[in-house]
Amino acid sequence: MNKRIITLFLTTFIVLILIVGCSNKDREMDANASSEAFNANRDFKEILKEAKGETVSFYGWGGDEDRNKWLNKTVAPILKKEYDITLDVVGMDIDDILAKLSGEKQAGLKKGSIDMIWINGENFYSAKENDLLFGPFLEQLPNFEKYIDNEDEEVNSDFGFSIDGYEAPYSKAQLVFINDSSVTKETPKNAKELMKYCKENKGKVTYAAPPDFTGSAFIRTLIYDIVGHEQFLDMKADKKIVKEKIEPALEYLRELNKYLWNEGKTFPATSGEVKNMFGDGELVMTMSYSPYSVATEIEKGVYKDTVRTFLFDKGTVGNTNYIAIAKNSSNKAAAIVAINEIISAKVQTTQFEELKELAVVSYDKLNDEEKKRFDSIKIGQGVLPQDELLSKRLPEMPANIVPIIEEIWIEEVVGK
Amino acid sequence: MNKKTPYILIIPIVLLGVLFIFGVVNGIVQSLGYIPAFGLKSITLDYYISILKNPIFLDSLKLSLQISIVSSILAIILGTILTAALVYTNHTEGRVIQVIKLAILVPYTIVALFLISILSQNGLMARAFYKLGWISSQGEFPLLLYSKNNFGIILGYVWKEVPFVAYFSLSLMNSVNKTLGEASENLGASKLKSFFYITLPLSMPAIRKAFLIILTFSFGAYDLPFLIGATLPKALPVQAHIQYIHPDLRHRPYAMALNGLILLITWIMAFVYYLVTKKKRIKGEINEKY
Amino acid sequence: MKSINSHSLLKFLLYITLFIILVPVLILILWTFASRWPWPKLLPEVYSFRSIKEVLSPHANAFSTLFSSIFLSLTVAVLSAIVGTMTARALVLYDFVGKRVIDLLSIAPILVPGTVFAMGIHIVFIKMSLSDTLLGVIIVHLIYTLPYSINIMKDLTDSIGKEMELQAYVLGASPLKSFRFITLPLLIPGLMSSISMAYIISFSQYFITLLIGGGNVKTFSVLMVPFIAKGDRTLSSAYGLIFIVSTLLIFVLIDRVFKGLSFKTRKEEI
């Protein structure tokens, strides 16, 4: 009996030593890995040649069937036809992508299976900080020069952090509010009107609890409306400072709780659930980070055709989605070519047409034909025109302040 | 028989077991703050300490224990009855078993969809009550999901685990009943007596193991408590999941440490279970002797 | 009289259970064809074939993924039953050094949170070049299915005992032969539940498949989970229905194969 326990301990000990030993070796592997780097800073024709015949993988959230369809049926054929590149779309949540990349980094894997990554905000910041991304490559893309406005703040920084050429814009998103004109006539124009609206429709408004992406953005939009947005752009990521600055908004949110679904004692965990509750008539209002989602939902028969989109007068938070390349990607050339094509006017126009996602190309940089094509797209029912969205668009907070606010919300708002 | 036989038989499990231990130890090392990929290179208990110091941890622990213990006890009792029902009504194969298996194979996320469709304030039950005139608005229907009493989560676990317990212990109880239960009935024991004195005790190994499996599973799984639990307090695995999806990668050790604590508590539960069942087993042996 | 009463009571309980299991599945069928089902309607208001169109469209890869996923899980299930039977025999019928360790190992994977194991094994597998490969996924799935297979087989092996096999052996049959003709037929119900259980466990694995399989090994769960997470009830229901129905069909298949097998064994005995 005792002998067995001793053997067990010994084996565990040996295993531990083995593992620590292995990990020490990795560091050497890591050091070697960085020496043979891909050179993005050369003639694009050369990159095109290297990319020919390759298969490039694109990892990103797989829960949007329309986007999957667009990538597979519109983008992939273009890449195949024009560059002989095969696009392999893989659905994976960003936290799992980063878990995979960090595991690979730790094990010293030089050639991973992830090439392109759909990413933004805090995840980009953290991935870049931890050396998981390849770059800079943005400036090397011919279509960046050709179609994208490099003066645009969102092209240079993502959630307040400098991009430094490590990711390319993919599509623009913006928080919008949604209600049904046949149920409630008013569309609140600011936080104060929202409070009144919630009082009139007691128990029929709620939002998803952070860290849900949309719920979190809704809270930030309210904070902006109450305490203004400029001060956050260079705020120190310190819980005490942030809390002090947003105190009036916290006060507002606690007051709002009284009129929310189940009196703000509990919140749905996902924005999908909030959307479903709105669709069923349990709520009178919902919100979405896809500004044209109402049009697609009406088309699918999920929403009634009296549902419409609205914004606050001061605006709502908006952000850009980006594509980055993994540091250990084994097809960097093909990834660069594919990204270059995705930011072209042609592909961006199809994205706007098929997915109703705001394009990242600058309208002013399009030629007449491209402009005509762009203007001819019907945006659908119940949504706002692009210029209204863009004129009421507020920049996102720095990435490292977002989790602090989410933490404060849990402590100071839920059930209070 | 040949002395080498057992060693040949265990070759595959030993190989897989070594891999398993490697994986777990590597995971635990990460929870101690050793993730060189993020520049975290010192082994420390700080992550554990800071979690244990947070008062939220205790609330979460209590909640998770409550969910797993209540749901598992309910499921094991109902599941054993279901097993007996299957064995004694001679439904040990065929369509009935396929239905039982159906519940086992439905993913937990789909179970959440069921619960929301049926039991939420906007679900079919509330709608039926409204049609019958028992309530006049959604808000009057009791809040069964997202509530602090965790009714919905427990019900979801019971829905899936009762069939699991039945399926897991069915083949043993059936074979015990066929060989010994029916024999004792032939010798004149009543059905009820033969069940409680012969069939049930001899089926206990499977039932006990099923209990341990569902107890630890419902303690460590996050889907149901995340989707239909209250915003506060959050179950322990939900906390761990939220730490895992925290965008700052240097936060990962918190997620791993929370999982490490779940692991530790699970092992404590398993150990207590082992002690309790060991006592019972010894008692059983003594009873048999006299 | 009394036993008839308890019998009908058990039957009644059984039918209630079956009812409670089947009703939610009905809702899944309704949602597959519904696009709007507002309060206070007891049946959907607007029906559509959106989910069917989406699932059947070639770009969704639903069915090709389904078939490769079935193949993967069947492989895992059969391997798991074999290793499970071997381990169970060793544990029940023999004494050997390290028996307690193996006994502990046979339940341990259930007692470890998925994330701890997944994140750790990922790094081990990258070093062994098993990450992003089918073999790697089969191995991790096996680690998760084995506790169930071993325990189902262990209880059964225990209840059958060694005597019968031993008798045949004493009477002159080789150990392998006596296992094949005496023990195996008795193990068949256990093997069936072991394979079914392992299939379910393997087919529903999400996180570990994602991490170890990368994008290279695509399974149906990996395809389905994002739609459920998003809360699209129509698509979730359609995928959920395919998940359930395909698995039930596999179970019917397993059932048939084993019925054929036990029949064949009986014939050979004669």
In short:
The complex is a heterotrimer of chains A (416), B (290) and C (270). Chain A contains 17 helices and twelve strands. Chain A is an alpha/beta fold and 416 residues long.
The main pleated sheet of chain C reads as:
2 strands, antiparallel
Can you tell me the number of structural domains of chain C?
Answer: 2
Oligomer: heterotrimer
Largest sheet of chain B, in brief, is: none
Shape of chain B: flat
- The number of domains of chain B is 2
Termini of chain B, distance in Å? 33 Å
Task: Tell me, rounded to a whole number, the average pLDDT of chain B.
Answer: 88
Spatial strand sequence of the major β-sheet of chain C: 1-2
- The CATH superfamily of the largest domain in chain C is MetI-like
According to DSSP, the number of beta strands of chain B is 0
Q: What general form of chain C does the structure show? A: globular
Organism (chain C): Tissierella creatinophila DSM 6911
Subcellular location (chain C): Cell inner membrane; Cell membrane
Domain ABC transmembrane type-1 (chain C): 66-254
Transmembrane segments (chain C): 12-34, 66-92, 104-128, 134-153, 181-201, 207-229, 236-254
What does the secondary structure layout of this molecule look like, with pairings?
The complex is a heterotrimer of chains A (416), B (290) and C (270).
Chain A (H helix, E strand, L loop, with lengths): L1 H32 L10 H8 L3 E6 L4 H19 L2 E6 L2 H14 L8 E4 L1 H9 L3 E2 L7 H6 L5 H4 E2 L2 E2 L4 E8 L1 E5 L10 H10 L12 H15 L11 H19 L13 H9 L5 E4 L4 H8 L6 E4 L5 E11 L5 H11 L2 H11 L12 H8 L10 H6 L1 E3 L6 H11 L4
Parallel strand pairs in A: 1-2, 1-3, 11-12
Antiparallel strand pairs in A: 3-11, 4-11, 5-6, 7-11, 8-9, 8-10
Helix pairs in contact in A: 2-13, 3-14, 9-10, 10-17
Chain B lengths: L4 H5 L1 H21 L14 H8 L1 H34 L6 H11 L2 H12 L4 H8 L19 H36 L4 H30 L2 H6 L7 H9 L7 H38 L1
Helix pairs in contact in B: 2-12, 4-8, 4-9, 5-8, 6-8, 8-9, 9-12, 11-12
Chain C lengths: L1 H31 L1 E3 L9 E2 L2 H7 L5 H32 L5 H7 L8 H14 L6 H27 L2 H8 L4 H30 L2 H7 L6 H11 L2 H37 L1
Antiparallel strand pairs in C: 1-2
Helix pairs in contact in C: 1-11, 2-11, 3-6, 3-8, 5-9, 6-8, 6-9, 7-8, 8-11, 10-11
Pfam families (chain C): BPD_transp_1
Protein name (chain C): Trehalose transport system permease protein SugB
Keywords (chain C): Cell inner membrane, Cell membrane, Membrane, Transmembrane, Transmembrane helix, Transport
